[in-house]
Amino acid sequence: MKQTFRNIPLALFTFVILLLASCSPEACFEETNAFLKASMYLQVTGKNVAPDSITLYGLTRETDKIYKRSTAVKVAKMPLNASASSCSFVIKINGVYDTITFEYSSYLHLISKECGYTFYHMIDTTLYTRNIIDTVRITSSRVTTLNEENIRIYY
Amino acid sequence: MRKTYVYIISILCLGFSMAASAQDEPPDTVVIPLKIRAGLELAGPVIYFTDKNNLSFEGYVSGDLNEKMAIFLGGGYADFKYSQYNYDYLSRGVFIKAGVDFNLLKPEINMGKYWAGIGLHYGQSIFTSETPSFEHENYWGTIASSIPLRTSWGHFLEISPGFKAELFNNFSIGWSVSLRRLIYSGTSKDLMPVSIPGFGTGGKTMSFAMNYFITINIPYRKIRVVIKKEPPEETEEVTAPQNP
After folding, report:
1. Mean pLDDT over residues A135-149, rounded?
2. φ, ψ of residue B197 in degrees (nearest 5)
3. Residue A28 is assigned to a structural domain of this protein
4. What's the number of domains chain A is made of?
5. Partner residues linked to B87 by β-bridges
6. Structural domain includes residue B10
């Protein structure tokens, strides 16, 4: 009986160790893509207003639309190409087409052990046509997975 | 003259009886053996049996400076492999920790056998890390690449509250909780190591671990420690209400 009581702490000790060993959460719940966040601003009022409709796709990738006649888009998320130093998008705001080109550098970033690596970007220059777009202003050049505005598109 | 002898004998008897009665009271001092300890951490090797990708050995030596404080020196080795859906990671390295351990138990309770206190340690790790492959997928396609082998130095602080008890003669077991704060990972903020030996999971500035130790104790000196007696509790006298 006395021997049994002596073994209880040893058993608990082993149990706790094995329990800890078995606890290894591996799921990723974080955003893994660093999108360029473009807020849509009405030039006349200077307010963040969603256009009536917006269509967005990468230049030469017309069939693969990011937004297709979407409404209520106050902030458009634009994925940059990490294997290139620039990329262009075709944007159609309220039925009028424009093209925006971003020049940037990309670098690796570890999100977390569970989510692994992604690419962050540093915007250098924006070039755009001015059919409906009035101005494109960079507000934060660092494009990350955080929910931070990078550019403002005044239309 | 006879009365004088009787008086002297009475004084001596009173003296002896007081001395005898004083021996029955709790002692004012205790003898504490100061020890050098050498311990091994058990959780690392046990975890290795369930997860062959995570090998970690850790040990320590500590030497009592007095009944409350000990100098601590620890070290170990870690070999970590990790594979996630979009990347593989390898790291391997050694670490050392140095600091002080404080025993918060009173000397008359710890008696050199029990330790319940807190350790404050500074840790340094030298390790190699490598990402042999990773893939990144977005709208524009998939990029496959790798990060070559690099050597880094990590620095961290550790607070370790815990408990150790002597089970048998000069053999202790115990546990501690380690809360660690990364000071410097040895790399840029964007490419934090996934794992830092001695610190744990990288990519974060704080880490938490449970440690289980077996320890050999070698007494090297005994000291006499004065027990601080607590002042007797003052009892409030209950006074009868005064009549008007």
Report:
1. 96
2. -55, 130
3. no
4. 1
5. B84, B134
6. no
Q: Is the pLDDT confidence value at A105 over 60?
A: yes
H or E segment and range at residue B237: none
What's B45's domain CATH number? 2.40.160
Task: Give the residue ranges of chain B where pLDDT is below 50.
Answer: 1-23, 244
State the average pLDDT over residues A13-20.
Answer: 54
Size of interface A-B (CB pairs under 8 A): 83
- Report if residue A62 sits inside a domain: yes
Q: Is residue B179 part of a domain?
A: yes
Residue A118 counted as domain residue: yes
Q: Is A110 on the interface with B (CB under 8 A)?
A: yes
Please state, in angstroms and rounded to a whole number, the distance separating the CA atoms of residues B151 and A46: 51
Whether A112 sits inside 8 A of B204 (CB atoms) is yes
pLDDT digits over B152-178, tens only? 999 999 999 999 999 988 999 999 999
Q: pTM (2 decimals)? A: 0.75
Query: Which residues have C-beta within 8 Å of that of residue A88, sequence separation ≥ 6?
Result: A58, A59, A99, A100, A101, A102
Q: What is the token pair recorded at A12? A: 């608990």
CA distance linking residue B145 with residue B191, whole number of Å: 14
Q: What is residue B204's predicted lDDT score, i.e. its pLDDT?
A: 81
Give me the amino acid identity at B207.
S
CB–CB contact B43 A24 (8 Å): no
Q: A145 is in which domain, residue-wise? A: 35-154
CA A5 to chain centre: 57
| Residue type, position B70, single letter | A
